[in-house]
Amino acid sequence: MFDISALDLARIQFAFTVSFHIIFPAFSIGLASYLAVLEGLWLWKKEDRYMEVFNYWKTIFAVGFGMGVVSGVVMAYQFGTNWSVFSDKAGPVIGPLMGYEVLSAFFLEAGFLGIMLFGQKRVGPKLHFTATFMVAVGTLFSAFWILSVNSWMQTPAGHAMNAQGQFIPDDWIAVIFNPSFPYRLVHMVLAAYLTTAFVVGAVGAYHLLKNKANAHARLMFSMAMWMAALVTPLQILAGDQHGLNTLEHQPAKIAAIEGHYENVTGAPLILFGIPDNEKAEVLYPISVPKLGSLILTHSWDGELQGLESFPKEDWPNTFLIFWTFRIMVGIGFIMLAIGFWSLLRRYQGRLYEDRWLARAVTLAGPSGFIAVLCGWVTTEAGRQPWTIYGLLRTSESASPLVAAEVGTTLLAFIVVYFTLFGVGVYYMLRLMAKTPEKTPEKMETLKRAVGMVGASSNIDESRT
Q1: Backbone angle region of 282, left / alpha / beta, with phi > 0 → left and psi within -120 to 50 → alpha
Q2: What is the pTM of this model?
């Protein structure tokens, strides 16, 4: 098919499906925690607006969660179809870890999701909050196990090889808490929170532009801007620490990200340019002297390895990850600027009156998804040509398929994904476009439920 090998088509297919999948868990992780915070604030402050905003986002969460589950199942099947050699060799390690994710995360989410979505009139408020909280915990457990699997592929540890050439666990603690795992887990969870914050903030800003007196839009916007202002600096710090960890364990990836082909002391920070692996240089570079060494070694004269230190067949796609990394970082600094802008307006008492801020946040709504996708491309493409870094090549991991077979399924995925998930995303956008407002009937029902629980506890106390 167009002279593309089965291996390349399998990689394209996995990249396509993971790109669709990752945006939904990133949104679900942050939104589940946001829903738990909203319901907790409602129980604490007894203000209707918290529960009304909770109900506004609850349906959106359910749709996104469902699409995340469906797209994730498809990815799991690809391990057996397109990457059977990898599954056979790494199965004894990654199989149990993914099984733990199902047992500890998916069952927890699925078990309490129904109560969260449909149980407000059937269970007490505290039990309903417990269900919402457990769904949020379940999404974090899911991130924990999936990031552990992927991090082990980046920085394998705690394993041995058996006679059949399979990776087998030798120390489960070392496997799970491999060298890059803590950094990548923190970086991904914070990315999920920021992604959700900017979606919530964009929806709040959109409705503020239509009616700046809307109390529900004000609540969304205010909470989202607090998250942007407080979490974005933490994410930049976490990203810096992740980069230092990557420099230690995957120096070729850092050399490609930074665009360094030669070993250099006092390396510049190359802001922009066109990396060319054939010429082994960055064309038309725009750089800041010595800043690269300062960031990565915390010394003006620190020495950095270039790609020349590694076999050329082990070089990743430098052009791709050079630019995806810069897009991700650029979005991070845009988020930081918006967060500081919101703090200034909050201090001035004009957070809801600044229409330019509201417009900027509305436009930045999808920015978290773009940053997450660019981050994952940087991470995964930067690991190439390895599926298990330094131990198992991608070319040795694929199933023995012909290009036509993989190409046919890839085309089918493209049609089905754009149709199915396009409809799902369109429906979510329709829900977000609805004006958040009071729902007196629902709130009266909830108030009666709270009153019944309180009366029941009083009766029990009088009996004792």
Answers
A1: beta
A2: 0.89
